[in-house]
Amino acid sequence: QVQLVESGGGLVQAGGSLRLSCAASGRTFSAYTMGWFRQVPGKEREFVAVISGSGGSTYYAGSLKGRVTISRDNAKNTVYLQMSSLTPEDTAVYCCAAQYTSASVIAYTSTDAYTYWGQGTQVTVSS
Q1: Which residues contact 104 (CB under 8 A, 6 or more apart)?
Q2: What are 24-55's pLDDT values in tens digits?
Q3: Distance in angstroms (rounded) separating the CA atoms of residues 71 and 52
Q4: How far apart are CA 43 and CA 99, in angstroms?
Q5: In degrees to the nearest 10, what's the CA dihedral of 80, 34, 111, 2?
Q6: Which of 12, 48, 52, 122 is spaced 20 to 30 A from 84 at the CA atom?
Q7: Is residue 38 a contact partner of residue 92, using CB atoms and an 8 Å limit?
Q8: Cα–Cα distance measured from residue 16 to residue 57, given in angstroms and rounded to the nearest whole number
Q9: Could you give the CA distance from residue 40 to residue 104 in angstroms, rounded to a whole number?
């Protein structure tokens, strides 16, 4: 069982930056592929980024590539999402997800690929 807790969301002006964190419980954090998704009310959850257990492989949604960076610190059981050049269209609840796997990260861009989810953190970008 893995519990995930996101933090770092908030209100930011357009053009600004935020770093989201996702802290995970458990002793085998490095065995989990971690993903970030975001959701706007009334819309499906959207893939943002994924990182392998070792941190050596990453993959990003095409629409966000260049503005977001996913990273992890396995010693701290934490995965991060650094976001920059934010626009009001980035306003959403951002959730992290975990899956026990060593498969290619490219296979983990859909919500049904993950077993564990956090509650999310709200990011609001003002114009």
Answers
A1: 57
A2: 998 899 999 999 999 999 999 999 999 999 99
A3: 9
A4: 23
A5: -110
A6: 52
A7: yes
A8: 26
A9: 27
